[in-house]
Amino acid sequence: MSDLDLLHFEQLKKEVQTQYLENYTPSDEDISKWKGIDIIYFQEDLRKRAKGNISEKSFYTYFKTAPVTKLPRIDMLNILSAYAGYMSWYDFKKNHLFADEILADYEDLNEEQLNAPERTVENSSSEEVPEKTSESSAAAPQNTPENLPEKIDLQISATDNQIIKENSAEFSTYDTTEQKSTFTLLKKYLWLGISAILAVSVGLLGFKDELFSKKFYYSFIDADRNSKINAELQVQILKDNESPILYVAKPNEPFVYTTKSKKLTMVVSSPYYRTDTIYRNLETAPEAENIELKPNDYAIMLFYYSKSITDLKKKRESLNYLISDNALIYQVYDNETYGVETMDKQRYINLVTLPSTSLENLQVIETKDDKAGKINMIKFKIATDEKK
After folding, report:
1. How far is the CA of 216 from the CAs of 211, 242, 244, 254, in angstroms?
2. What DSSP character marks residue 244?
3. pTM, full prediction
């Protein structure tokens, strides 16, 4: 990557900004100052004109920083170049050459030139094979009769063998083979017994928690609908003098907790249900139990209105009634450049009533309501799935 490529990319950003300003009027003409709803409108226009997409994370990385120190991927460069009216990133650079700049055109190389080095390697490899074969055949030793080792007779004489047999017969009355076999057998069983005892001890130490623990099954029920909760729940286990341990209860499945404690304190929370703290004496508690959770009606309504794309007028009126005029609204981002953004009530309503594919990933993280029954705090995010 050269410095000229970075200068070309700055030129491309200016032309992308000019192209967008021909049909739209964002909150600021400078593309580096766009955020929130401006970025969503730009993403929609990019999909329509260039048949491509740029994630919010990439927009903050390459458009909010000037000048940039690294180039985006080539596929993103091609999409932005097509949006600005060019065939590709190469076509854009070709039309914006600087003084004395030479643009390498690898497409002009014919197939014969590209394959020439490969043929050279193949020829050199084929020439080396016979040499290696001849060298290996020359280096291989010849199995001739002269090279074979001479067999040596280690037996001195037949007379010596007869003497050895006579000696073994004389000492046969002192054979202790049976005594040694008994001792070896006892030694073998002794080691087996010690090994078995050690194995049992290690097993007890390794699985003592499972042997002395007990499993409890908790199913969470919607208190208003008397049905299983089809959503993930956050379960915090609280213990004395310890930090909370966080678990996730899967939708439509009981939460299984294994413990050897005599009491249990757990806090169950969800964006769409009221947080509840549950206390149990496990000495008398049943192994399986259904626990009711009170739904958070405001969060459920916000989620429904955000997903619905029908009757936008009625949807805006309902949101305007539910949300307090002084509500604190936070949008959480999945990037390090811009973590959290605040917005007012009207801007949030405009965002969630915009017919955009980005709202398919909208998630309500937390809501709070005041004494008058109005929502005075909303925290949400629009998840992204950009590939690194």
Report:
1. 15, 21, 19, 9
2. -
3. 0.39
